[in-house]
Structures are given as C-alpha cells and as structure tokens.
Design a protein that fits this description.
9 helices; alpha+beta; six-stranded antiparallel beta barrel; 313 residues; 2 domains; Rossmann fold; Thrombin, subunit H
C-alpha cells in the first residue's frame, strides 16, 4: 500500500520536483529523521539530532541539503514513512518524489549517561538534577546512506561517541527534561557531557560522509596575463582552499530526453589549476594543464584532506 501511494506521488511530482541536479554539479540529499531509543521516542531528540546533522552537512559543502520542514511536508503530503524511505526496494521512488539523489538516516541506539562505569537503562537512575564528577555520556548512532538513483546502500556503519570531561552532569529525569525542551543550542546543553558527546557523534557522521560529497565549484572567468592563463573560481577560504592546492577541472555534458528531462550526465577532465591567491569566497588559480582549453562554466573539485580525530571532538 505504501509503495502504491509512493508510485502515484511519483507520477504526479516527477515533472515538478524530479531529481534534477543542482547548481555547479552538486547532488541533493535528504536527512530522514533518526529513530529514537524507546526512552526518548516522542521527544524532540530525533528532530534536534537531524537539525544538527543538516547544519554540519551544509558546512561541509559538496552537497545540497533539503530543509527538514520541506522534507516533513512532502512526507506528510504523500504519506511516506521514514523507514520506507531508507528501504532499498522503495528508495528510488522516494528519491524521485523528494527530488534528491541520496537519503541519509538511521537509529539512535544509545543516548545517555553512564555512572561509575555502570549503564542503567541508557540514562542514570538518580535524583533529578544531580551532579556527578565521575560519569560518561555516550551516544551511538546506526547510520545508513542510500543512493536514491539505484537503491544501493552506500554506507552502513555505527558511530560511537563519549565525553568524560568535567561538566554539568545531566542525569535521570533532568536529562529527559532537557531533551523535552527541544532547544539544542542552549548553553546548558552545549556544556553538558551529553551535549558534547552528541556533537562528537554528529561530527563523526558527517566526516564519514565527506568522501561521497567532494566539494564542487565553478570557473567564473578565464583570462591571460604576461603569457600565463588564470582561472577565477567561485569558492575560496570559506570552502577550505589555500595557496598551493591543486584542483581538477572538468566539464559536464547533460543528455536529455525528448521531453527535456535529464537522463544522463557525463564528466570529462579538462585540466588542472594551482591556487595562487585566495579570498573568502573566490580564488585565482594558475592553469597548469588544459586539454581542451579551460573555459568559464567548467567545474572544479579536489580531494578532502582527512581531519585529525582530535580536531573533530
């Protein structure tokens, strides 16, 4: 029944919101609400975690993230369930309805505080608001990334994060009260062990996704001076570019059917450039090699550098 409803929705929306590629060759992703543990089901925990992941994905770049409100609206309109979206058997149809190339979701399998090295039901059973000097916050997420064009599961892993640092110990009912407030940007949340553990888990999730979403920019202009050809790029320091980095330049060809819908996309390497001067949101690069000639509108990318674990905490 769910699949028939989804199929009808596809036929109505494919011409409106089909999985059309984004500007500058970037793909689109929907972050499906993570399923909460039984203890926190019905609380804002899932929504808060989803928003944190969306925020970090936007910072990562290389992929366009649809807003949670837009995703929820489409899911409500077409009676889509989160678990159905991540099912390989129906992910392709779901991706077409949502207009995305990837679906990300999973489960929150652990979320709580462990005291004296003993985990009591995921959250310490203690006096509400009690403070503990020896306690560990632990967050475990089961993650799944699905290619919405094929239904193939690209990534399935468990992410674990803990925080043992000295801070306000949110335990028992006090932790649940904080989650029920639904504001994950408060100082109390940020300074708590569970808040820090959650941020670590979210950071680990996004870093594990980084190889699937290489940064993509566009060549804004090409010019020649004193016999050297330069390219002006539309990304800069905010995207992580720095002098000396080499970038790959490529050109995409889009194949469309008789009704104008994209059915295929090919990429051809054009050359390489070396970053020379960087501003916040633009870059000047020397064209090192080109065949054919680099031109305005070409795309560029580079491999992300692995981030040290201590910087992700």
């Amino acid at each position: 029944m769910w699949f028939r409803t989804l199929a009808c929705a596809v036929s109505l929306l494919v011409g409106i919101s089909g999985a059309s590629p984004s500007a500058a060759g970037m793909k689109r992703i929907a972050v499906v609400p993570f399923e909460s543990t039984a203890e926190f089901r019905g609380t804002p925990l899932s929504r808060g975690l989803t928003d944190m992941i969306i925020t970090e994905l936007v910072k990562l770049g290389g992929v366009q993230v649809i807003e949670r409100a837009q995703l929820e609206r489409l899911m409500d309109e077409h009676r889509l369930r989160a678990d159905g979206l991540l099912d390989p058997a129906t992910a392709v149809a779901a991706g077409r309805v949502l207009g995305v190339d990837y679906l990300l979701g999973g489960r929150i399998t652990e979320f709580g505080v462990k005291e004296n090295r003993t985990l009591l039901g995921g959250v310490a059973e203690a006096v509400a608001g009690a403070r503990y000097k020896q306690s560990t916050a632990r967050v475990v997420l089961d993650l799944r990334l699905v290619d919405a064009s094929t239904g193939r599961i690209l990534l399935a892993r468990s992410v674990q994060a803990e925080d043992r640092s000295a801070s306000v110990g949110l335990a028992g009912g006090r932790l649940r009260d904080l989650v029920l407030i639904g504001n994950f940007e408060t100082t109390e949340w940020a300074e708590s062990r569970i808040g820090r553990a959650t941020r670590k888990a979210v950071s680990e999730v996004v870093q594990s996704l980084a190889p699937y979403f290489p940064p993509v920019g566009r060549v804004s202009a090409v010019y020649e001076r004193d016999g050297t050809r330069y390219a002006i790029l539309d990304l800069g320091a905010f995207a992580g570019l720095a002098p000396g980095r080499e970038l790959r330049i490529y050109r995409e060809t889009v194949v469309r059917d008789s009704e104008g819908r994209e059915v295929w996309r090919e990429a051809r390497d054009v050359g390489r450039v070396r970053v020379e001067d960087v501003r916040n949101d633009s870059t000047r690069a020397v064209i090192v090699t080109e065949d054919p000639a680099v031109q305005e509108g070409d795309l560029f990318t580079w491999e992300r550098q692995p981030q040290p674990a201590e910087e992700r905490k």
